[in-house]
Each structure stands twice: as structure tokens, then as C-alpha cells.
Amino acid sequence: MKTVVLKRVTIIAEALLEERLVRDVKRLGARGHTVTEVRGEGSRGVRASEWEGHNVKLESIVSPDVADRVLEHLAATYFPHFAVIAYVEDVSVVRGEKYV
Predict the structure, then answer these.
(1) What is the pTM of this model?
(2) Residue 97 CB: number of other CB atoms within 10 A?
(3) Which residues form a coiled coil (predicted)?
(4) How far apart are CA 5 and CA 24, in angstroms?
(5) Nearest 5°: phi and psi at 80?
(6) Domains of the chain (ranges plus CATH)?
(7) Is residue 55 a contact partner of residue 15, using CB atoms and an 8 Å limit?
(8) What strand order describes the sheet that includes 55-62?
(9) Which residues lie across from 26 on neighbouring strands?
(10) How far is the C-alpha of 22 from the C-alpha of 7, rounded, in Å?
């Protein structure tokens, strides 16, 4: 079975940003995505209360060019104003043509 190396972009953000992030990622070239509700602790600690809402994790498998565009957009638009984390990993996928 032949695989292709692509990029998995993972974004963790406040749930109120979900629709905006999905729209942006698609506009920047992603063909699909997965969103899950997540919780955890980071440099800012654990969220203080339920009323603050949950976090979401958005994942998308994309080409290296799309991954770069997404990270640049996040850095310019979201990082200065919101609690957003993003990272990119190499992934080996079957049927790579579905993603690019």
C-alpha cells in the first residue's frame, strides 16, 4: 500500500472560534476537517469555571503549502487576541489525492 507524506494541522482554541476557524481553514485550502471537544491544562493553567466554555481541537490533513498559509493566518489573526494553540506534524496517508 502506497502512502503520501502530508501535514496534519492541529488547532486548539476556544469553542466560540470554531465556526470562524473552520471557515478560514477551508478558505485557505483544506478539503476537510475534524473537530472535537477537548480539555486540558497549559501555560495558563486550567480554565476557572464552566461558564468560560470548552475548547475545541480542529484537525485537517493538508499539503505543506496549505499548512504554511494556515499557520501564517493564525499568527496574524488569532494569536494576538485569543487563546489559540497550533502545530503541524508530518503524517503518512493512504489515498493522498483526497487531501490536496
Answers:
(1) 0.89
(2) 7
(3) none
(4) 23
(5) -70, -20
(6) 3-94 (3.30.70.120)
(7) yes
(8) 34-38, 55-62, 3-14, 85-94
(9) none
(10) 17
